[in-house]
């Protein structure tokens, strides 16, 4: 196969620029990546971050400030945990898990403005952001494949620039959704 054939096949079915704009603008209405969520938390944007994983996964670690509301409990407990109408961002394990998508759907059916944090807890940790554990705040070095260290995303306090007091760990964190 020549390169020209590969290019022709790749773009044989391509959206018009107008359709592409609508599609990608729409995705941004439904999704936020972990870096954007991290920045929004640091800026004090008004939303509630919901960890939708089960108890075992929550105990392994979670985003600081997140509220634990497992997906199976959203329909029964959401209104008692988050006032109706409050913007919500949900996350689960990571890109290989659709628990956050299911949870976002559940919140949307209950009338909440909701976004899914793509990448989930896995990419929060991989980007080197601090996370809460039973032993306190922990942090891993950024995964070189996420390329966040050059961007200055080191988990430092956005106000003071000081690094958080954390324990760097290298234990396995697994999906138990």
UniProtKB/TrEMBL annotation:
InterPro entries: GlpE_sulfurtransferase (IPR050229), Rhodanese-like_dom (IPR001763), Rhodanese-like_dom_sf (IPR036873). Pfam families: Rhodanese. Signal peptide: none annotated. PROSITE patterns: RHODANESE_3. Coiled coil: none annotated. Residues 43-133 form the Rhodanese domain. PANTHER family: FAD-DEPENDENT OXIDOREDUCTASE (PTHR43031), PYRIDINE NUCLEOTIDE-DISULPHIDE OXIDOREDUCTASE (PTHR43031:SF1). This is Rhodanese domain-containing protein.
